Prior knowledge:
The structure is a single chain. Strands 3-4-2-1-16-15 form a 6-stranded mixed beta sheet. The chain has a 6-stranded mixed beta sheet with strand order 5-6-7-10-14-12. A two-stranded antiparallel ribbon has the order 8-9. By secondary structure, it is α+β, with helices and mostly antiparallel strands. Helix 1 packs across helix 2 (108-119) and helix 4 runs parallel beside helix 5 (265-279). The protein has one domain: Endonuclease/exonuclease/phosphatase (Deoxyribonuclease I, Chain A), CATH 3.60.10.10. The longest helix is centred in the middle third of the chain and has 21 residues, at 215-235. It has 9 helices and 16 strands. It has helices at 82-89, 108-119, 144-147, 215-235, 265-279, 289-294, 323-327, 340-343, 357-360, and strands spanning 54-61, 95-99, 129-134, 152-157, 166-169, 179-184, 188-194, 202-204, 211-214, 239-245, 255-256, 287-288, 313-314, 317-321, 331-336, 351-356. Keywords: Hydrolase, Magnesium, Manganese, Metal-binding.
Amino acid sequence: MSPSSPHLKGALSTTNRTISPPALRRKLTPSSEHVVTPTRVPCATSDADASADLFRVFSWNVNGVGPLLQKQLIFQSNSAPPLRAFLKRHHWPQFLCLQEVKINKNDTATQRALERAANEGNTTPEPTYTAHFSLPRDKYNATGFGGKVHGVATLICDDMSPAVRVTTRRPDWDLEGRVLIHELENQVAIINGYWVNGTSNPYRDPVSGQVNGTRHDHKLRFHQWMLQETLQLEATGNHVILIGDMNIARSRIDGYPSLRTSPVQHVKNRADFNAKFITSPNGMCGIDIFRHLHAEQKSYTYYPRGRPWGESCDRVDLIIISRSLIMADGVVGTDIYNSPAERGHSDHVPLSVSLSFTRLFSSTSLDKNLDP
Length: 372
């Protein structure tokens, strides 16, 4: 695995459900729905503000970054791009992990535009952000729409304590622009992932171009590769946070009006994910933090456009964490921001997790005897 440069880097990609075109002309639309916002927490850490201990990571499958780069929308009160407005509305999270950004790896102009949209309209003492990218470079499996498919980006707040310096890398095995691994100096690792969607479409060997099974087969390989990354990070003492669109609704409560069971391979994919990351003693033995904290609450992240809100929805964007984070009492909370206003131009809504570094590093307990 080779480390990537921390600033504006491209690399890999594949698909979620069916591939939709980049959202270049789609507009964010006003909504009367109430937008839930968290308690004010500054991105910058300072001794003067006790709440600065809270470290917040947001995730959002944006289904194309085009609408986030627009200068001004009718319902906005200022000229800041929608991305900057999103960051401000959620009170400057330290991390914003984006999936399905749909940027060609050679399109450095759009990469710069995304970082500019995160910072444009900045006024002191508001924070600024640096963008990191992993974009598709698979010439056989990520070529739709001129290479504007898949892709992940992470916006990291520039104004963080030296105690949480970040190293960013992209795993060499991921040619489809699906993974960014961020290792914090204090041994918290955040993996921003746009996980493979299983379909019966052919998967081609990225070197020879020969058909090598289906996208279902590739999804299972992706699960194994992600598990290996996770276990390696945990073995070196890291608390791991897997966050993003995982293209899995884990159980019946996570699908409405019903859980997807046809074709049967979806059931097998779900079982493989749950075993590797939740239930198997040989796997991550991770914690689905939303289900852990909210038990039987029904809340969803994928709301397909073109259908009435709530008619069909799934919780496929997940946050799976090392159970060491729970045993150390390091998790403050988690949320899903499921309203039409928060969905905006996308077909997914954002979600977040909050950590307390003070609580986390006052404990060194690493007990795996915790129920999933």
